[in-house]
Design a protein that fits this description.
mainly alpha; 0% strand
Length: 111
């Protein structure tokens, strides 16, 4: 087979890009709009679908069940926030402890 060199392929690609760009001149406003692939919004659509299903499920519950779900959600939310704060406090404590160890080392050992 006869292969072209990489430079020739790059030049050919560049000339094709110039040709395509010169031929494409949108005539109307509809052609100027960007054609967006629906798959790029698949994640957003999935979240919207799940949210809609949860909302529909919640509205179909009885009033007592709705209150129970809200209370349980509140308890779980508080527990998660509390865990995050404990993790932050542990990180800050570790940083202070390591800083004190470093300063003690510098002051006592490196004299």
């Amino acid at each position: 087979m006869n292969y072209k060199s990489e430079r020739e392929l790059q030049q050919h690609l560049h000339s094709l890009e110039i040709e395509i760009n010169s031929q494409y001149m949108p005539n109307s406003e509809t052609e100027k709009k960007i054609d967006v692939d629906n798959s790029s919004f698949a994640g957003i659509n999935n979240v919207a679908n799940i949210t809609g299903k949860i909302t529909q499920w919640f509205t179909n519950l009885t009033r007592v069940s709705q209150i129970g779900v809200l209370v349980l959600s509140l308890v779980i939310s508080v527990a998660v926030i509390q865990a995050i704060f404990k993790l932050l406090a542990a990180a800050i404590s570790l940083t202070v402890f390591l800083t004190l160890i470093y300063l003690g080392y510098k002051f006592f050992v490196s004299k």
